[in-house]
Design goal:
Strand content: 15-25%
CATH superfamily: Spore Coat Polysaccharide Biosynthesis Protein SpsA, Chain A
CATH class: Alpha Beta
Order of helices and strands: EEHEHHEHEEHEEHHEHEH
Number of domains: 1
Radius of gyration: 17 Å
Distance between the termini: 44 Å
CATH topology: Spore Coat Polysaccharide Biosynthesis Protein SpsA, Chain A
Structural class: alpha/beta
Strand order of the largest sheet: 1-4-3-2-5-8-7-9
Number of helices: 9
Length: 246
């Protein structure tokens, strides 16, 4: 499945980052996330699936290389559009993320693997262990759906289409329940991203020593709105990514 994109600029489109953002606050958050990518990855193409809010914002066209309209947005619009990526190799990011490192090492995973994600952090929550159609070993936990790296191969796109259908029919509020089982049943080559590529909790900024891990992608709910707390968080994370202790 491919959807119409409005393109500007001449960046190479083999590898790129996709955002799916609807509503003014989410669009603004996606713009800020995309700007964080540009600092360390100026060559990467950035694409946005969005609704009328994003299309009406002039900053959208100055931030993203490609823009596609979402006709019927909903809270989990991402499941409808991931398979429509315009790139051969895609990194999908939720809008409430910030990138603090070069992303070339991430895309290099797709030389060997089909898809890569980080595990969900709160793996002992009842909702995180909720089954869909079958019981799955706890040693194969949910993956977090806010950072997804994938190839545009036929098997991967088929899985993403199955995820779209499953989300709309299974009745779960969260999309990771169905994704877990679909990945479990698939024959895809799945790489597990280390936690520094999808940091969900600030405690890691204090706990990690410099020789243990360095922040690559921060994925935090405070980035959903661009208030003073989001700005403070971004500055603190930048210091940590540069090697300072927060």
């Amino acid at each position: 499945m491919r959807e119409a994109f409005e393109w500007q600029g001449e960046r190479e489109r083999r590898c790129g980052v996709v955002y799916i953002a609807t509503g003014a606050a989410s669009v603004e958050a996606a713009q800020a996330s995309a700007q964080s990518i540009r600092r360390a990855n100026p060559e990467l193409s950035l694409a946005l699936f969005t609704d009328a809010n994003g299309l009406a914002d002039p900053r959208t066209r100055s931030t993203f290389d490609g823009i596609s309209r979402i006709a019927n947005p909903h809270r989990r619009s991402k499941v409808d559009h991931l398979a429509a990526t315009p790139f051969e190799r895609t990194l999908y990011l939720d809008a409430d993320t910030r990138v603090y490192a070069a992303l070339a090492p991430v895309f290099a995973l797709l030389d060997r693997f089909d898809v890569a994600l980080a595990h969900a952090h709160a793996r002992e929550r009842e909702s995180t262990n909720e089954p869909w159609r079958k019981e799955i070993p706890a040693s194969f936990p949910q993956f977090n759906g806010g950072v997804i790296l994938y190839r545009s191969s036929a098997p991967v796109l088929a899985l993403l289409e199955s995820w779209r259908e499953a989300f709309h029919t299974a009745g779960f509020r969260k999309d990771q329940v169905t994704l877990r089982e679909l990945l479990w049943e698939s024959d895809l080559r799945i790489a597990t991203l280390p936690p520094e590529y999808n940091v969900r909790y600030l405690k890691y900024l204090w706990l990690w020593r410099r020789n243990e891990a360095s922040l690559k992608i921060l994925h935090h709910r405070r980035f959903r709105a661009l208030g003073w707390d989001a700005r403070l968080l971004s500055r603190a994370a930048s210091r940590f990514a540069a090697g300072a202790r927060v």
